[in-house]
Design brief:
70% of the residues lie in helices and 0% in strands. By secondary structure, it is mainly α. The protein has one domain. Helix 4 packs antiparallel against helix 5. The protein starts with a helix and ends in a 15-residue tail after the last helix. Keywords: Membrane, Transmembrane, Transmembrane helix. This is Phosphatase PAP2 family protein. It comes from Actinokineospora guangxiensis.
């Protein structure tokens, strides 16, 4: 199965899931909410609020700025290949982040009273966007570390998802949908930007 096909399938799954849960709450969502939610007014809620503040929209902004700074420095060194890679990574990150902009399309209510719509989780979209971009960059710049970065990225997405459910502001399908949307759109975008498959020989690795 090609990357484009995989990306398209994941995006379709994202859309179907969103339309399915837009006016109903599946049993699995209620089960997860009963198991994890309800503690947002307790100590665990305070902890997860702090973690969620870090693993959220601030991450793609920070990474985007870091990539732009890196691109400027690469330009000054005359490293055209690295500059192009970092700028394409900025585009990839920005496109992945747009997944959360479709919330009004589904207009799903949150588990508790809270601003904005629920599907997909913007926090998980943010973390997944950063994770996807970092894995792609790692494949170019430090291929031997891709597996480690991938596992750390998965862990970060899972933690972000759990925090949002513990805070009772997202359903399980909200965080699942966010992940499907980002990976699907990420595969299509990265392929279109010629970031996949990675060709590390074209960019010198710093390690």
């Amino acid at each position: 199965m090609t990357r484009v096909t995989s990306g398209a399938i994941l995006l379709i799954a994202f859309l179907v899931l969103g339309l399915t849960v837009s006016d109903t709450t599946p049993t699995i969502d209620r089960f997860a909410a009963d198991a994890l939610g309800g503690g947002w007014q307790q100590t665990i809620g305070d902890i997860t609020f702090v973690v969620s503040a870090v693993l959220g929209p601030v991450l793609p902004v920070a990474l985007g700025l870091a990539l732009l700074v890196g691109a400027v420095l690469a330009h000054r060194r005359g490293d055209v290949a690295r500059r192009g890679l970092l700028l394409r990574a900025v585009v990839l990150l920005a496109v992945c982040r747009t997944v959360s902009l479709v919330k009004p399309l589904f207009a799903r209510d949150r588990p508790r009273e809270y601003p904005d719509f629920s599907f997909p989780s913007g926090h998980v979209v943010s973390v997944a966007s950063v994770a996807f971009t970092l894995v792609v960059l790692c494949a170019w710049l430090a291929a031997r570390r891709v597996r480690a970065v991938l596992w750390w990225s998965i862990a970060a997405v899972v933690v972000a998802a759990l925090c949002r459910m513990i805070l009772d502001v997202h359903w399980l399908t909200d965080v699942l949908g966010a992940t499907l949307g980002v990976v699907g759109l990420g595969l299509l975008t990265a392929t279109g930007l010629k970031l996949l498959p990675a060709r590390p020989q074209g960019v010198k690795s710093p390690v």
